[in-house]
Amino acid sequence: MPELPEVETVARGLQRELAGRKILSVTLGKADFIDDPGTVERELPGRTILSVERYGKFLLLRLSAGEGTEETKEESALLVHLGMTGLLMPRVVSEPQAKHTHVVLLLDDGRELRYIDPRRFGRIAYLEGEVLRGELQRFGADPLEAGLAEFAQRIRGRRARIKALLLDQKVLRGVGNIYADECLWKAKIHPAALGARLKTRQVEELRAVLQEILQKAIVLRGSSISDFLDAEGLPGEYQRHHRVYGREGKACFRCKTAIRRVIVAGRSSYFCPKCQAAPRGWKKKRAKSRQRASAKK
DNA sequence: CTCGATCCCTGGACGC
DNA sequence: TGCGTCCAGGGATCGA
Predict the structure, then answer these.
(1) Strand C closer than 7 Å to the CB of A83?
(2) Catalytic annotation on A191?
(3) CA gap A12, A18 in Å, rounded
(4) Who has the most CB within 10 Å: A108, A211, A223, A294?
(5) Is this prediction's pTM over 0.70?
(6) CA angle A28, A33, A37 (to 5 degrees)
(7) Closest nucleotide to A81's CA, by C1' atom?
């Protein structure tokens, strides 16, 4: 599941491989996850990939201006979200296509950029000018760049649970379920804690831990827990450093207490019940909602 | 504003 | 071997 470190890894690989390459043609398979397939097919051929950047969990392929629009010089880009199972990698044309290959961009060097995504939870969109800028503005701060003041304001100004805030791309762009749990464990904050209730000290710690863990994960080329591969087709290594994610029932690395899993913000959340103290009222609230759920049946 | 529920989708795990 | 069922989860959306 590609989150910030995985997308950063792919972006770096693609930048190395694709910068300066020209797109000759576009072939689409199943296109139900593409914003406007017709626009993608029409706009991409003839464009040069200027650069590949990460923006939150998106890959941003910056493109040269289209023909006939030289005077407007509108910036344009192909946005690619890998969803849960998306892979984006250049392959030589002769190599057989993997199953679930939905987008193929033929390049001017004998290779093609292939988008493979079994579940099609990803998203692809060609955007330019004001629309592109508007789309990018919808997202919150990059967790690696956010200063303490901005970070604190984004977290403490909200009453939602910290897990929900970390996953909310309008608050911070790029954090997903795995790194949210890893960071909360390291910062000793319960996933159901309310953002507004966090102490100054905890907010500072959380920001530091986020940056430390994300940076470390980037160095190790991300986490490959199901099927993530980078632009070269290589898995990441950070899954070996996971401390809580996917470790229900196993001993906490700090205190040996059994790691537990609860649903917070609709997502599996792994935490240590001893290191990460539950907020007031949380246990009662959970019991109640579980009662409701079983009464329904 | 915040919550939970529901949908999208396929592959893998599991039970029989 | 082959079913059926459940689960994984990022994000959009909707009603409470």
Answers:
(1) yes
(2) no
(3) 10
(4) A223
(5) yes
(6) 45
(7) C10
